[in-house]
Amino acid sequence: MSSPVTTTHERSKPKIAVLGSINMDLVIRCDQLPRPGETVSARSMSEVPGGKGANQAVAAARCGGAVRMIGCVGDDGFGQKLLNNLLNESIDCSAVLTAQACESGLAIVSVENSGENAIIVIPGANARLSAEDIQRAESAFADCDVLMVQLETPQPTVLAGIQAAKRAGVKVILDPAPAATLSDELFDVDLICPNESEATAIVGGRLESIEDAAEIAKRLHAKGPAAVAITLAARGTMLYDGATIELIPSIKVDAVDTTAAGDAFAGAVAVRWAATGSLRQAIQWANLAGALAASRAGAQPSLPARQQIDSASS
Ligand code: ADP
Predict the structure, then answer these.
(1) Which residues are responsible for catalysis (predicted)?
(2) Ligand 1 mean position to 236 CA, how many Å?
(3) How do residues 198-233 score in pLDDT, each as one tens digit?
(4) Which of 65, 82, 262, 306 is most buried (CB neighbours < 10 A)?
(5) Closest CA to 176 of 197, 161, 146
């Protein structure tokens, strides 16, 4: 086993805040998805903790971050299970609210034998997290190095988080997922990290070649973020910081299930950027995290730990 790569300026536990969704995925396996009006029997059903916010919090915690989750669960049976899952990953949940008379965020994921799926997302308590809640929780941002946000909570809530982080001098990473039209103020971040379809949903155009990715990264940068990292799956990541544009390649893996590759990437960028101060170095390392996640099945179960990422780098 190789020794971990460390950097002279690296601090032991970067402090990462994650403002985002917390969901329970109900994964239903059946031979064939039902057509409208049809009833089918399932072979199995499993409860799998998910939600982009929670996934990224778990990713950052496994990468060695001291992580605080800012979010909202419901007062149904899933709420406590979702909190316990985060607590098991040593994530600080003191800023996770419980909405009364409200269901937790749910995703009903039906998967048929062919691998085809159909997903219904119920935002539930995630939609209850308001800008006022964030303003009341301002102290949750104060002592952090990096805030991570995504778009599975309402945009005014995300904006309140970005503004609170800015006031506290905290770096902000926006993963604009799922693909959406964004209000202009949301671009006032230190890094935006869309995948290919999210990037084109924002600035339009087609992204096929590496040249397209470079062009789209520049168009995204013109919207306001200090840096842009477009994740290009097996091709790696296109990084543009306003001065240098560069494709940072990933490693070759046998991709089994790319679910949560982007979440593994985002969590790793946050931790490594906070630890080293080098965005380029953080993205190199995060590419490895994304590749490892793509080489394993599932969402949270596939998120790699720091030592595994370090081993993949040698
Ligand atoms: P998302 O899951 O958001 O669509 P991507 O699929 O682009 O995000 O993956 C995020 C990062 O993970 C990529 O930039 C890349 O570094 C790494 N990655 C993902 N899939 C692979 C793969 N098949 N081979 C190598 N690296 C991968």
Answers:
(1) 263 (proton acceptor)
(2) 7
(3) 999 999 999 999 999 999 999 999 999 999 999 999
(4) 65
(5) 197
**Domains of the chain (ranges, CATH numbers):** 15-301 (3.40.1190.20)
Q: 255 CA distance to ligand 1 centroid (A)?
A: 9
pLDDT attached to residue 3: 37
**Amino acid letter at 227?**
A
Q: How far is the CA of 80 from the centre of ligand 1 (A)?
A: 31
**Mean pLDDT value across residues 141-145:** 94
Decide: 110 in ligand 1 pocket, CB within 6 A.
no
Average pLDDT for the chain? 94
Which pTM does this prediction carry? 0.94
Q: Which helix (H) or strand (E) holds 97?
A: strand 92-99
Is 298 marked within a binding site?
yes
The residue to mutate among 173, 193, 195, 231, having the most atoms of ligand 1 within 8 angstroms of its beta carbon, is 231
